[in-house]
Structures are given as C-alpha cells and as structure tokens.
Amino acid sequence: MRLALDVLTIVAVSGGAFFFLAGTVGMLRFPDTLTRLHALTKADNLGVGLVVVGLLPQAAGPREAAELLGTWLLVLLSGSVVSQLVARTVFATDRLGDALARGPGPPR
Amino acid sequence: MSIQTALELVLAAVVLGLAAWAVAARETSAAVVGFIAYGLLIALVWVALGAVDVALAEAAIGGGLGGVLLLSAGARLRENEKRAAAERPGAGARLAAAALSAMVAAGLAVAVLRLPTPAPTLAPQAAANAAATGMGNPITNVLMAFRAMDTLLEKFVLLLGLVGVWSLAADRLWGGNPGPRHQADPLGLLAFLARLLAPIGVVVGIYMVWTGADHPGGAFQGGTVLAAMWLLTMMAGLTDTPPVSSLRLRLVLVAGPGVFLVVGLAGLLFGAAFLSYPAAYAKPLIVAIEVAMTLTVAATLTLLSAGAPEQRLER
C-alpha cells in the first residue's frame, strides 16, 4: 500500500513537473499573448493540480490534505481570473489584430 | 553534492540572474516584473535558510505589495518613458555610478566575509528567555519584547512614509480620497474575484496575526494580506479609499504606534523601563499591540499603494 502511494506521488509530481516545463517552453516560444496565455494556464491548472494530487498521499493528516487542496483551488481561481483579464486587455487594445496582421514571428 | 545543495545553487543562480535582469531591463514594466519574481524567489531563499517568518514578510512585501506599488508607479511614469529613455547620462556620470555601486557591493562582500565563524548570535539568549513572554514564536518574542524599540520605530517610519506621499497632493485636492477612483464593471471579473477572494483573504490575514504568537506569522504579514484584500476591492471598484481628512482613518493610522507608545510609557512609569511588560500581562499586552499594529499596517500599506489625494473632497 505504502509503495503504491509512493509510486502515485512520483508519477503525479513528475507529470506536474512536465506540464510546468511544457508551459514554460510554450510561454517562451509561442508567438503572441493569447497563445502564451494558453501555455501558461496549462502549467497553472494541470501542473499545480498534479503536484497537489501527488503530495496528497504524503500529507500528515486530513488538515494538511485540505490545505493542499485549498492552495490548488486558490491557484485555479487567481490563474483563471488573471488569464481572462489579460486576454480581455489584449482584445481591448487590439494588439491581437496587429499580431495577426504581422503573422507568426519572434515574440515581441 | 546532495540534491538540496544542487537545488539551492540553482535557486541562487536564478536569483542573481533575475537581479541582473531587473537592473538591465530597458522597459520599466519588464524591470518591475523581474523585480516581483525576484522578491518571490528571495522568499524561497529565506525558506531554504529556515527563516519562515522573514519569508512570509518578503513574499507579502517584495512579491506582493511592493510589486503593486512599483507597477502603479510604472503606469504613472509611462508617458515620460520615451523621453526618459532618450536622456542618456554622460560617460563620466555612468562611470561614477558604476564605481560607486561596485564599491558598495565590495564593502558589503568584505563585511560578510570578515564575519567570524560561527557568526555572532543572540539566538541562544532569545531562546533561553522565551518563557518570559508566554509566546511560542521566538521571532515574535524578539520583535515585540526583546527588541520592541526597533519595531516601534519601524512603525513611525511607515507613518512618515505615508505623510510624505500625502504631502505630494495638490492644495485644492487636500483632504480628498487618495488615488484615482477605480471604475470597473460591478458584474465583471475583477469584482467577482474581489467578492470571492476578499473574505478568504481577510480570514487568512487575521489567522496569520493570531498564529504569530506561537508559529510563523505576525502583525506585519497579516496586515499586508489585509491590505492586499482592501486594494483588490478598490481596484474592482467595489469600494473607494477613505478621504485623508477622515478622523476615523487617522485614528486607525496612529492606533499601532499609539498603543505601543502607551504600553511603553506605562512600563516606564510602573515597571522597570520603557517598553518593559509586567510578566503576568506580557502576552495580553503584546497581543493588544499586535492587533492595533495590524490595523495600522493594513491601512498604511493600502494608502501607500493608493498614493496622494487625487479626488476632490465632497462636502
């Protein structure tokens, strides 16, 4: 049982680390704000989520597990709201139109 | 080399890289973002050093409110950014600045490297006298009892900073509300976040103050979280800053240093010395000071971020 839980932790935390890595690469390489945002939210939601899932079996008790889940929910909340706000700002300032007109290229 | 050492080396390298980025970045907003990330990573450095209290304060100030302050300052400077970037100081001035910075850095490095090993510390004395106050957190003991004078003076400095910001107000606006009135869709995203997050943040802030007696936390960290929540509701347009002429606001602003000073003077009159607490009442007195200080810290930091009065006082 202990072994199975430890394996779950290793797999889930590694998966979370992978999403963080992929999100970071995406944020550095994608051409415009909206696609970069898309990469970033994967790291926020799935990356943190998988790390939390992986840490749950190692939690000392229900209280610590609840703290972990609460942290994840707060990250989800702030991440989703902030990415919406950034995306709306992009549309409002019409940078998207400029970016599309210019076509794919190095990030500004 | 253990995994922990390797992680700490990576952390140190990233911190140094971000510091260089924040200094070298041409655009104000890029430099500010670099500095915020730098503050958050410095908090991680403090955790790695085992100083959780300092890490909380650094994350709240360096990563949080300091970031808000710098971002809003950057937004105000945006109009002048092009002109400021075009102005390039002469080679002599730049050389002198570089030489002075290098001298300061070298002086600091020498001071750190010349410390004897092990470094001089008062930690054993602080730990030995921990029972004197009835508090379990040695940091709170040092801040509120053993070195209470420093904490008291620090609060005066905060207040002086706010007076400095307020003194930038135009005469005709004096007495009005600090900062611009934020307009936001009352059913919009920011208002949604403010309604959902602020109650959670207030509970977390109060918890941080309360738990500071025995665990990492305290008035400054808790007050900063409360300030962040107040700022959030303001930016969402749900509330406005109170006018600086408000008596209630001013009472809150002086509550922390005021209660601290009264307790300190009472120690001078009835006890052994200025800021000496009678042993039987040490903990209740310290908690009372911390509660007053939390309100002061929250209000001061919020208003520091809001800026000078910009709205005419409505009579």
If you had to describe this structure to a student in words, what would you say it looks like?
The complex is a heterodimer of chains A (108) and B (315). With 108 residues, chain A is mostly helical. Chain A is built from 4 helices and no strands. Chain A has helices at 2-29, 33-55, 62-92, 95-102. In chain A, helix 1 (2-29) runs antiparallel to helix 2 and helix 2 (33-55) packs antiparallel against helix 3 (62-92). The mean pLDDT of chain A is 85. Chain A is elongated. Chain B has helices at residues 3-24, 28-48, 52-77, 81-86, 91-113, 123-128, 138-146, 148-166, 189-211, 219-235, 247-270, 282-306. Chain B starts with a helix and ends in a 9-residue tail after the last helix. Chain B has 315 residues and is mainly α. Chain B contains 12 helices and no strands. The A-B interface holds A 74, 77-78, 81, 84-85, 88 and B 189-190, 192-193, 196-197, 200.
Distance between the termini of chain B: 69 Å
Query: How helix-rich are the residues of chain B, as a percent range?
Result: over 70%
Could you tell me the mean pLDDT of chain A?
Answer: 85
Total DSSP helices of chain A: 4
Q: Key features?
A:
heterodimer; A: 108 residues; mainly alpha; 4 helices; B: 315 residues; 0% strand; globular
